[in-house]
Amino acid sequence: MEIHSPAGILPTIPDDLTVPQFIFNFAHNTRPLRSQEIPWLIEDETGRKIFETEVRERTTALANGLWSKYALAEDDVVLLFSRNHVDYPIAIWAVHTLGGVISGANPDFSSNELLYQIEATKARLLIVHPEALETALSAAREANIPLNRIITFNRTGTHSNTSPEASQFATIDEVVEQGQRIPIGFKEHKLGKGEAKTKLAFLSFSSGTTGKPKAVAIPHYAPITNVIQLAVHHRVNQDYCPKEDQRFRAGDVAIGLLPLYHIYGLVINLHFMLYSAMSLVIIPKFNLLGTLDSIVRHRISHLVLVPPHIVLLCKHPAVKNYALHKYVRFVMSGAAPLSHEVNQQLFDLLPDAHIGQAYGMTETCTAVTMFPITSKRGASGSAGQLMPGCIARVVKQDGSLAGYNEPGELVIYTPSVATCYANNEKATKETFINGWIVTGDEVKIDRNGEVWVLDRLKEIMKVRGFQVAPAELEGCLLDHADVSNACVVGIPDDYSGEIPIAYIVLTAKAAERIKADPTGKASEETKKSIIKHVADNKVKYKHLAGGVEFVDVIPTSPSGKLLRRVLRERAREMHKQRESRIGHGTRMKAKL
């Protein structure tokens, strides 16, 4: 059967607006009025508040500077390679104003990972955080991007001193100043009726089973739709209960901790919070003690987090020194499931807050489920109920539709859907089917409309909320001189959700070397070398935190396909035995 959202009817979505036109000018009964006293952005370290007038003026000036200095044109791709920064959203909206496309990249990427994204998107301009400049320069040279097409975000606060190398590049401030000095020369990009459904706004990357991340083509209509879905679901700007109990109120303060290059941070943490007339405290990088200080210093009421953040909130001894319950009224967890145990601990930590989970994908331009507005507490372990406008099918192995409480693969329809995987017709046909998204997640839906995520059916791992493709790591491993064959699987982890472990078939030469060493030293050194090889070539969350195991052969099907499930079951059994030996307290102490 098909299951529809219980959260109400989705209103008409504007299909002729760009994202900045929507965020700056769109008035709607789901959108609260923002008084002039409510800042849009707050810089965490300095406390600087940025109000609407400055946001608008800075966006226009940056657009004018990009147009005049770099001749940025319609459909040009600008790659943002940076941690969170108060000018990050300004850069997004300025590029969109010119009709350009934004692709956000993880600032912890290695040079080859960044190079892949530059080449896949055909980026014409890079905007880079100074801390990531060395990597950006290496990738830009490989991609034959002129170095005069690199702009740096400004350093702030205690990190305001720039290196001699960074000082050679134009900064956002300098481009803004140029845009302010000269007359407005560009024409704001405007869309015709229905064009927002096809006009590209973002190329956001999602991992695939083939190993190479895929560029998800997201039109302007998708994030706009998801913001309105969220507003309807949460009854924003409605007097549905006493003011003090309403989930979102004008003037509330949200934490801006999630990376803005990630779809969760981009749509929910940034655009939805601003749409709801809230202030967003921009925090460049997570540090628990620093985050706790920020919550108190800025009186942050809304925490939008991922499970690793919440695990630390629930288990770190320093948390008891902060009266979080005085400030925090809302906690949302997404990007990966949160365990029942941690859910209960969070409920105990913040007994009066609205707390729950959500589920979504880059391909659905974020949330398709959310914990309901009818209760302060989402059901422990549930991903919530379908968002307005969403329809779900749960498909069993035989292809038939499951009923209530029957497991199967989630296939979802949402009006916030992306259009395709750019330049990847095969993957697009496998995932985007007649307006529906094949998620690769096993779920069940109960009679209350609660969606319960049971397992991953695809091979993708979820590590700290990020997708990790086993095939990508296997390709990297095969570049190591001692590796003949490899298979990577995920094992459960309290902190990260999953961590990768590699099963390795050694080359004959390496196997003989290890066999000839009765001390075991050669085996350990080889494992360390393999782990280091991945660490040197991949971003941190892709490292082999689960370790390396040597095997004689990788199990395969008669057609030659890796039987990953066999090794995953072996890994999980090994993990259970290891856990029983170590004990829970020791594990968490090691994490902290």
Structure description:
- The structure is a single chain.
- The radius of gyration is 24 Å and the shape is globular.
- The two termini are 45 Å apart.
- Helix 7 crosses helix 8 (263-275), helix 10 (307-315) packs across helix 11 and helix 14 crosses helix 15 (521-537).
- The chain contains 17 helices and 28 strands.
- Helix content is 32%, strand content 22%.
- Strand 15 and strand 16 (366-370) form a beta hairpin.
- The longest helix is centred in the first third of the chain and has 19 residues, at 52-70.
- The model is unreliable at 584-592 (pLDDT under 50).
- The chain is α/β, with parallel strands linked by helices and 592 residues long.
- Strands 1, 18, 19, 21, 22 and 23 form a 6-stranded antiparallel sheet that branches. Strands 5-4-6-7-8 form a 5-stranded parallel sheet, sandwiched between helices.
- Among the domains are: 51-190, Rossmann fold; 461-591, GMP Synthetase, Chain A, domain 3.
Total helix count? 17
Q: Which spans of ≥5 residues are poorly predicted at pLDDT below 50?
A: 584-592
Q: Please identify the top-level CATH class of the domain at 51-190.
A: Alpha Beta
Give the N-to-C terminal Cα separation: 45 Å
> How many E-type strands?
28
- Overall 3D geometry? globular
Structural class: alpha/beta
CATH third-level topology of the domain at 51-190 = Rossmann fold
Rounded to the nearest angstrom, the radius of gyration is: 24 Å
In percent, how helical is the residue content?
Answer: 25-40%
Strand residues, percent: 15-25%
Per CATH, which architecture of the domain at 51-190?
3-Layer(aba) Sandwich
> Kindly state the mean pLDDT as a whole number?
91
Q: Biggest β-sheet, characterized? A: 6 strands, antiparallel
Protein name: Phenylacetyl-CoA ligase
Organism: Pluteus cervinus
Keywords: Ligase
